[in-house]
Write a structure and sequence with these properties.
Keywords: Copper, Disulfide bond, Membrane, Metal-binding, Mitochondrion, Mitochondrion inner membrane. Disulfide bonds join 150-154. Cu cation binds at residues 150, 154, 241. Pfam families: SCO1-SenC. The protein is of the alpha+beta class. The chain has a domain at 122-277: Glutaredoxin. It is built from 8 helices and 9 strands. It has helices at 2-32, 45-49, 62-71, 76-107, 153-171, 190-197, 211-220, 264-277, and strands at 122-125, 130-132, 140-146, 176-182, 205-208, 225-226, 240-241, 245-248, 254-258. Strand 3, helix 5 (153-171) and strand 4 form a beta-alpha-beta unit. It is elongated.
């Protein structure tokens, strides 16, 4: 019995020693093993140390920034500049187109082989003074052919001519000569011309002469006129004639014919435009 107790005590001592060694080995092996580091995100020391810097903008609120992003690179200023530029280009090309058209019309009668409108003449004005084609040089001239006994067309055209002259004179004073040349020299002497033209405009110059002089001048200006035949002395009659205003430049050359379709404002604009185009 005593022997059995000794044996059990020895067995417990042996087991205790083995457990102690096992624990020491376990502890020593764990100590020798390297510790496994937890994975961490690689961050630089500068990023950790330096605070985040906000980028400065010119917008004070988020709404302003959104509004700018919604419009994109365009703004009302850019749109206004675009519209103004397009308008300027359109005006320039339209202006040049009209100027070139006027220039073609003005040079149409100056080309080789083309019939010339106008020419030299010598007549008498409403004051009995001599008036020649040379006296038209240096200024633009507006020439109309008619007669003082005309019942309706001539008065209407002379009223329009007076209005036209007033518009031109307001823009360029003393730069336009207004001539009324009779197609009825038998009845339109200087005295009759003076009294008739005084009712329309003080600047009008009335010209008359002999029948042959008037016929020759009408031929030079390509003006058609016709008087009835077999007219008895004192008998009233009408003269059929062309109805145009002939615009002549400062050199005495034909520029353009203004018809009944032109209003005084339109006719004045054409004359003023030709005056602007004129180069001495």
């Amino acid at each position: 019995m005593a022997h059995l107790r000794i044996t059990q005590a020895a067995l417990r001592s042996t087991i205790a020693k083995g457990s102690a060694r096992s624990c020491q080995c376990c502890f020593s092996s764990n100590a020798l093993q390297p510790k496994t580091a937890r994975p961490a995100m690689a961050t630089s020391s500068n990023q950790i140390r330096q605070p985040m810097m906000q980028k400065r903008t010119k917008y004070k609120t988020v709404e302003q920034a959104k509004s700018r992003q919604s419009t994109g690179p365009f703004s009302w200023k850019a749109g206004l500049l675009f519209v103004a530029t397009c308008g300027g280009l359109v005006w320039y090309f339209e202006h040049e187109k009209e100027r070139m058209q006027r220039q073609r019309i003005a040079e149409a009668t100056k080309g080789v082989g083309r019939p010339k409108v106008g020419g030299e003449f010598e007549l008498v004005d409403q004051n009995g003074n001599k008036f020649t084609s040379e006296m038209m040089k240096g200024k633009y001239s507006l020439v109309y052919f008619g007669f003082t006994r005309c019942p309706d067309i001539c008065p209407e055209e002379l009223d329009k001519m007076a209005r036209l002259v007033d518009i031109v004179e307001a823009k360029t004073p003393n730069n336009l000569i207004s001539l009324f040349i009779t197609c009825d020299p038998e009845r339109d002497d200087p005295e009759a011309m003076k009294g008739y033209l005084a009712e329309f405009h003080p600047s009008f110059i009335g010209l008359t002469g002999t029948y042959d002089q008037i016929k020759d001048l009408c031929k030079k200006y390509r003006v058609y006129f016709s008087t009835p035949q077999n007219v008895k002395p004192g008998q009233d009659y009408l003269v059929d004639h062309s109805i145009y205003f002939y615009l002549m430049d400062p050199e005495g050359d034909f520029v353009e014919a203004l018809g009944r379709q032109h209003s005084p404002e339109e006719g004045a604009k054409l004359i003023l435009d030709h005056m602007k185009d004129w180069k001495r």
